[in-house]
UniProtKB/TrEMBL annotation:
Pfam families: HupE_UreJ_2 (PF13795)
UniProt KW Transmembrane helix keyword: yes
Source species of the chain: Spirosoma soli
Keyword field contains NADP: no
Alphabetic keyword roster: Membrane, Transmembrane, Transmembrane helix
Protein name according to UniProt: HupE/UreJ family protein
Membrane-spanning intervals of the chain: 20-36, 43-65, 71-90, 110-128, 151-171, 178-195
């Protein structure tokens, strides 16, 4: 049980570590267009991301898939940039729209989160495999690490939605302005990560 808690803590620390903020930026970009009152939609969105990265985290850690680590490290900030830019064009479904129209307007974001989750899962696995060493079995550490990731992810989501509540509901700031500012900051940081990526420099 001690080993389980150790890997759970490692998963939590990995996604919340400010020095490795790429995954934090992605979660922020996912949540930027939502308010605290829309926590159910955010939960579904985060679940889609979880499903995606859980699949490739498991496959990559078990060495069932192979990929270039350098390529994944380049693709992760690209997913952040795409998600942030997509927020600029997001339109909140109006209350009078039919449920079918609402689903059409938002379902693409779930697909985006799921697809990009597959990429982030491979990024998580790089760190986990470096920790496993000569563990006799990796199933329990894999499960604990993944749970730790999710707990950390939910903490980030909670902080973003709480801040959105303060800005939008208490300070009465414009929701559009909030979305544009947060997404713009995330996009700028993602561009910086992309431009400073060594693999991109080699390709160019």
């Amino acid at each position: 049980m001690d080993d389980f808690l150790i890997y759970l803590r490692l998963g939590f620390d990995h996604i919340t570590d400010p020095s490795g903020y790429d995954h934090i930026l992605f979660v922020i970009a996912l949540c930027a267009v939502y308010t605290l009152q829309q926590w159910r939609q955010v939960l579904l969105l985060v679940t889609a991301f979880t499903v995606g990265h859980s699949i490739t985290l498991a496959l990559a850690t078990l060495q069932l898939i192979n990929y270039k680590t350098e390529l994944i490290e380049l693709l992760i900030p690209i997913t952040i940039l795409i998600t942030a830019i997509s927020n600029f064009f997001y339109q909140e479904p109006k209350s009078r729209l039919s449920s079918t129209t609402r689903q059409t307007n938002t379902s693409w974001r779930y697909g985006l989160a799921l697809t990009f989750g597959l990429i982030h899962g491979m990024g998580f696995s790089n760190y986990l495999r470096s920790l496993l060493g000569r563990e006799a079995t990796i199933i329990k550490p894999l499960l604990a690490f993944n749970i730790g990731l999710e707990v950390g992810q939910l903490v980030i989501v909670s902080l973003v939605l709480a801040l959105a509540y303060v800005v939008l509901d208490i300070l009465r700031s414009s929701r559009l302005r909030w979305t544009l500012i947060i997404s713009g900051i995330v996009a700028g940081m993602a561009i910086s990560l992309i431009l400073n990526n060594e693999y991109l420099a080699e390709l160019i």
